[in-house]
Specification:
- The chain is built from six helices and ten strands; from the N terminus they run H-H-H-H-E-E-H-E-E-E-E-E-E-E-E-H.
- A hairpin with a 5-residue loop joins strand 5 and strand 6.
- Helix 1 crosses helix 3 and helix 5 runs antiparallel to helix 6.
- The radius of gyration is 20 Å and the shape is globular.
Length: about 240
Amino acid sequence: MTSQILAIKEQIAAQLADSKFLNPTAEWLSAFMSTQKPTTPVPALVQTALFRLLASDITTSLRAEAMTCFPPDVSNPGIKEFILPGAAVAQLLNIEDMSKSRWEQVEAIEALERGEGSKGREIIRVTATEDSDDSQSNVAKGGGPHKLLLQDARGKSVYAIELKDIKGVAIGMSIGCKFVLKNARIARGVALLEPASTAMLGGKIEELHNAWKENRKTQLLTAIQESEQAARAEA
């Protein structure tokens, strides 16, 4: 039985690495298999493992390997430009719509709180259905380019900016969402995101997402207040 479980774990790890560039730690795989029946077909185990990995914190669930992590100098502004080696896996920690002022971002968050999204200039009511993915049901369509804060399995963070629209990237998307950056350009310490080099795997870290939702509007309002105070002091 032990050799059978080991063989199953190896198959799961190989398929996750080949298809999604996800390399779970031995500890994570062992914990995962302890909750599964060994008689479950391997394809079903792979899908369940993928779902759980996408909902996990990759700093604890994935192996911190050089080819799937950011290089140590990725955020160095002194380096003009280079191509990211390998396929770096990262999770979303923060997102900001660079096309909107802070007040507009507050209004967008409040619209999402009311269950509204936007389609072009038209405001639409967004309703989560039983079959819909709730993690993406409160996404504000349109806008951008967006500025993202991404974190790899080592805990290394880097800012990223959309050069071209990335499908699914928008205010209200799930914090903890996983990305794969393959041959992405890094310029002055910032990752430049384009569809050809950026794949969104999905996922959500519930605790981080809830904290971001609770704190984001407060952070924006505080920044607005500080700016207004500074402007009055200079007047």
